[in-house]
Every structure is written in structure tokens, then in C-alpha cells.
Specification:
2 helices, alpha+beta, four-stranded antiparallel β-sheet, Immunoglobulin-like
């Protein structure tokens, strides 16, 4: 019984430490309405030497359970850096809005695989037309 109590207490201490180290504590966020209240401009300041990536910015509905809009584009904030991000809300009903939310993590932005598209050559008819024109 004592072991179980000790393990439970240790788990609570570790989880409390993890919650205290969350990157949201290392950021100062200021929200400003822009463009006739159709967009929110987030000014996010990194107060630490850690690299931070904003992974989501969004808006809850008035019940603060339903997501009305979310932007999942990653925004990198260098150590002691400032990032300004604008999120548009012109296509949703703001009369039923709740609070704004954000999510972050430590590290660098994810590397996205960019596909390199091979441009197709000219079609047979385009080649013939070029021959006729003398190109």
C-alpha cells in the first residue's frame, strides 16, 4: 500500500513538473482586432532562450468546447523573438464566439515534403503550331 501511495505521489510530482514546463508559459500574447473586426492579429513574444513553434491558433464557440475556426499553420519563434500573425474570421458568426486559444511546442518547425512537379512538355499540336509559325 505504501508503494502504491509513493508511486502515485511521484507521478503527480512528475506530471506537475511537465505542466509547469509547457511552452505557453514562455510566451506573451497580445491580441488586437484588425480590418473592421474581421481579423485578429496575434503578437507573440518568446521570453526565453528556447525555440518555440506555434502549432495552432483558433477560436472557441461560446460554450468553449466547440472549435469555430482553427489555423494549423506552424509559426516559428526564435529565442527572444517576436512573431506577428493575422488570422481572419470574416466567414464566421462572431456573435457566438468564446475565447481564443493557441497551442505550441518546443523545437523547430516540421519539415513539410514539397512535391516537385515535373512540367509537361509541349503537346503534339503545340509543337506543330510552333513549326508552322517558325518558332
Amino acid at each position: 500500500m505504501k508503494k502504491l501511495l509513493g508511486i502515485t505521489l511521484l507521478n503527480l510530482l512528475i506530471s506537475g513538473k511537465l505542466l509547469a514546463d509547457h511552452c505557453a508559459h514562455d510566451l506573451d500574447k497580445t491580441l488586437t482586432w484588425k480590418n473592421d473586426n474581421k481579423a485578429i492579429q496575434w503578437e507573440i513574444k518568446n521570453k526565453t532562450k528556447n525555440e518555440i513553434v506555434i502549432t495552432r491558433l483558433g477560436l472557441w464557440a461560446s460554450d468553449n468546447k466547440t472549435v469555430m475556426k482553427v489555423s494549423e499553420r506552424e509559426h516559428y519563434i526564435k529565442p527572444f523573438g517576436i512573431k506577428t500573425v493575422k488570422v481572419w474570421f470574416d466567414d464566421i458568426n462572431l456573435d457566438v464566439r468564446g475565447s481564443f486559444f493557441s497551442a505550441c511546442r518546443y523545437g523547430k518547425p516540421s519539415k513539410t515534403s514539397s512535391k516537385k512537379y515535373k512540367l509537361k512538355g509541349k503537346s503534339w499540336s503545340q509543337k506543330m503550331l510552333d513549326n508552322i509559325r517558325g518558332n
